[in-house]
Structures are given as C-alpha cells and as structure tokens.
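User: Assemble these into one structure.

Assistant: Restating your components, then the assembled model:
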Amino acid sequence: MSKYQLTIYQPDGDPPPPEALEPVMAELHALNREMQEAGAWVFAAGLHPPETATVVSVRGGEVLLTDGPYIEGKEHIGGFTMIEAPDLDAALQWASRMARILDPLPIEVRPVNE
Amino acid sequence: MTDTAIVEEVFRREHGRAVAVLIRAFGDIDAAEEAVQDAFAVAVERWPRDGAPPAPAGWIIRTAHNRAIDRLRRDAVFQRKQAELALLDQSDEAFEEDAVPDDRLRLIFTCCHPALAPTARVALTLRLLGGLTTPEIARAFLVSESTMAQRLVRAKAKIRYAHIPYRVPEPEELPDRLSAVLAVLYLIYNEGYLSAGGNEASRPDLANEALRLVGVLEELMPDEPEIWGLRASMLLSESRRPARFGPDGELVPLSEQDRSRRDRALVTAGQRLVRRCLLRDRPGPYQIQAAIAAVHSDAPIAADTDWNQILALYDQLMAHTPSPVVALNRAVAIAEVRGPEAALAVIDPLHLDGYYLFHAVRGDLLERLGSKPEAREAHRRAAELTVNPAERRLLERKLSRLTT
C-alpha cells in the first residue's frame, strides 16, 4: 500500500453561500466515511482561509514572521485528505469521486515519499 | 542473414517482450532495461562467434534474467533483502520453461497511462516497446537528446514513485484506456506520415514502427475492432506513400495523386480489415476514419470518389468525436457535395487559427470561389504555420499559381 495526498485547490475570495456549500460538505463527509470503511482514509483536514496564515522563515539567523500565505495567487490550498491505496489507479478513483463532488475544484494527487 | 544482423533483428522484434517480462519479474523498469541491454551486449559478442541460438528471443530473456539476478546479488543493499531473493529464486524456475509469458500488453498500458503526459507516453512506448534509443526518439520529435532523456527519466520516476500499476485495465476501464493507447500509436504514425517539424517531410521508420506496434496490439487483443480500424487507416495511408511526393519533394494532394503508383497489397490489406470492421458492426472513431480512407481507395481516379458516402461517414465521425479538426475535414467533403460556399460557411467559425490545414483548406475554397487575393492570404498564412518542407513546397506552388 502507498500513501497519497489529495489536495484541494480553491479560488481566493468568499466561499459559496451556505445553501450551496452545505450539500457539498455533506457529500464530502459521506465520501470520507466511505474511505474510512474501505480502510483507505488516513486523515483529512480543511484549512481556514489563506489570510489567517503566517509564514515563518529565518533571515540572517533571525526568525522572521510574515502575515499571509507564502504564495500569493488566485488559488490556495483549501484542504487535503491523506489516503492509502494499492496503486495510483485506486488513488485516482477516490480523487475522481472527490472532484465530482467539488466540481469545478481540481484535486492534486501526489504520492507520499515513504 | 549474418549473425550480427540476426542480433539486430531480434533486438527490434523482441526488445519490448524481453523488457516487459523482466519488469514483471523485478518490478522495476530501469533494472529490466539494463538487464536486456546486457543480454544483447552478450549476444553481439557471442552469436557471430558461436552462432545464434535456436530460440533467440528466449535466449535473450533468460540471459537478461540471469544477468539481472547477478547484478542484484552483487548489490549490497539487496543482500539484506532476503525475502526478495527467495522470490527471485522462485521466479528463476519459471524461466527454465521454454514458454515465456507475454507481458507486452501490461507494458503498453503502463506506457500509455493517462496520468503521464502525452509526450511522455509516446517516448516511453517507442523506448520500451519499440526498443528505439533515446537519441533516435529525440531526433524523431525534434528535441535535444538531453531533453528527451530527461523526459524519459521523469516518466519512469513517476511510474515508480506514484505506483502506476503494471497491469491490463479492468473491463470497465478498458474502452477509455485502450483509446489512450490507440491515440499514442496514431500520434507516432502521424509523425511518420507527415512530420510535424524538421527537415524531413515524412519518417517511414516511425510509420513502420507504429504499424508494427499496432500489429502487436492486435495480436494481444484480437477482438477489438477499433484496433483493426487504426491498423486499416495506417495501411491505407501507407499505400499512398509512393504517390504522395512529387519530383521536387513537394506534397501531391490526394486529388492529384497518380493512383497507379499506390501499393496494391497495402490497399487490399486495409480494405479487408475495413470489411471486417463493418461485419463486426461496433463502430468507433478509428474504424470510421478507416472507412473514409477505404472509400477514397475505392476510386480508381479522383473524379470517381463517392463524396456522398464520405460526407455521411464524416457525419458519423462528428457524432463520435465532435472536434474542430474533424469538422474541418468534413468541410472538405461538403465542398465536393454542396460546393465551396457551403464548406466555407462551415469552417469560418472554427477556432483553428493556429492550424495550417485550416488556412490551406480555406485557401483552396476561396480559390475555387475566385477570390484570388483572399486565397493568397490564406495560403500564405498556411505556409507560415507549417514547418514540413513538402507541405511548404506545395503551398508555395499554389501561391505562385495565384500570383500569375
């Protein structure tokens, strides 16, 4: 078995209104449950918006804190799910189901270096 | 045949099979490739001296397998993996038998996996199944050797680290996955038919390789009419090769080709396959394209072409794969059936401004309508967009005809 991180990218700005978001979240929870029952789920996390981020780096031996996300773009990482799957095809199948639920948000699938 | 020539022939024919078998045995593409290279190096040395073995392919696979095990045994890291060593000893026995399993189908599907970039799929297929060297593939696709080497390394690393499986897809995924494989072979063939770049007008070596690979695929999956369709298309296109280029190396349009110069054997083989598709009655885009080529091949002279039937087939193709390029080709048939004006109305809204054939077809239609300056402009645009020397010469000829 290999681990894969499924990363959700979403556009910056306000999230959709609750009446649009709620059914999506319910479907996502159901998918998570199904992953758990199948033994594929490792962990999952949704993130607060990028404005809440702090970047920590070292400059000339001093720790420097910067407000906001490291990369400013039109999109940001909205959350991720870590899964375990026998091969890429199996991982891509879970990712495809997630992408259908979150349509039009793209899901990036990356193997974990173990 | 000399023994050195036998080594070369066996290499072309059996490289794919040997690599495929060894990938399954060792679970690693690089190890498999290296072992097969080793085995052919031994063959080059021994066969001219001792004579070629009675079953050269089996000999290569067995030698490659033994070499790979020797190599792995020497590897210090591997010494610790006793479990794997036991597994190898077990598979050793399987190679004692003469009947070596054919794993090429798994390899084809791995090379053409949709998670790999299309350019990587083509490169991997030619490298692993075709046994072409990295410099050969680099030349074929006009990239530097280092770029191609990097592309192959990256693709193989993705297969390894992302665990792209080494298996034939399940029946429910097969249609999609098979069409990805056919698309790769089609791309290789097209590059061989009319080069998209470079100094050469066409690359018969690539065309032959594509034909060989589609033949292998057909042998491994004998009941897939889309494979017959693709092979029929290739055969019918190849049949015209002797008639496709003029004395100055310019491309001769289909309507002006001397049909007596066609390769009759290829025409017959292609038409036979198309009939088989029709009887099978499970049409798909490759079969329809083959049927179109077959209708063209039926006409002894261009004026006898049954354009109504061709248009009907393009309508069918549009229903399967509604792409602007198909629409453009369909417009050529419309011009013959309903006239150039109707065809122009169909192609003008297509978003194909960067495609040389769009302008070339437009130029022909405008010329037929008597709009000389506009036709000239379209042909000039087409000539700017193509790098193929034969295509360019044809367009320049048209341009000079329009200026006089």
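Chain A has one domain: 2-111.
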